[in-house]
Amino acid sequence: IALARWVCAGILLYAAGRQIFAELNKLQDTELKLDLPLLFVGAALYAAAMACFAAYWRQTALGMGGRPGRLEAQRAYFVSQLGKYIPGKAWVIFIRCALIDNQTTTAPVIIASTFYETLAMMAAGSLLALVALLSAGNARPVMLVLSGGLAAGLFFAVLPPVFGRLTTWTARSLRKAGAIPIGAITYTTWFQGFRYCIPGWTAAGLSLLAIAGSLGISLFSLVGFLLACGSMALAIVGGFAVLIVPAGLGVREWVLMQTLGPSIGTSNAVLVAILARITHVSVELFVAGCLYLLGNRKKEND
Which one, of 165, 168, 189, lies nearest residue 63 by Cα? Predict the structure, then answer.
């Protein structure tokens, strides 16, 4: 099974990379002019999206019995995003466990809340992608099938009774080692996913819209807004779903090519996808660095 996953990931990356480079070759003689203020707006919107997801992770941890602070949760969340660039994404959990005070929030709670927040975020994103792409029209059937399949599977996984069975089984093993039991997920936490994740995904979509605008590619319309939200959500969720690939590298860009291509052209979609990747990585590095230093300074003052 492990070998099959690596083979499938390799084929996917090869196909996506080949298509991306082929489109980039067509643009060798094209002069690009960036609207920097609009690009900074896109960066700020992406940071706001990540802050929404971080806030929901904190709410999930609180519901499971943890007590992470707001700044502490934001700091751990943003810094842990850098762990997704390592294959398998397991470093995300390790980093959060290292940056959260284990006296107020135990490692089992951090691990369980991270899994639940990720699944709930992806469930909301895939559902938003399905609705937005259907409403925008002109979506390729394979993208609708992909978003619908992800939404159905992920929403089933985050239902409190389903996820509760998994945490109960895990907690039994942890209790043998003397760990504190994990609090059960409630429907309150489940509904909070819509409260935090839908605004987060909307901000991520607006980020893509602004980044495209900085390239002179206008998506400033209702259809463009729906297309940007649906495309960004499906691209990030699709990248998360392929665990072997670090940060969905290649997968996210391929999804954006498939969803944006019919409306703005495949070459323009490649440009938007690559600039979005550069902008989002830069935002994660900058905000993670600032919050990490801020957290260290606060500890020194205490």
Answer: 189
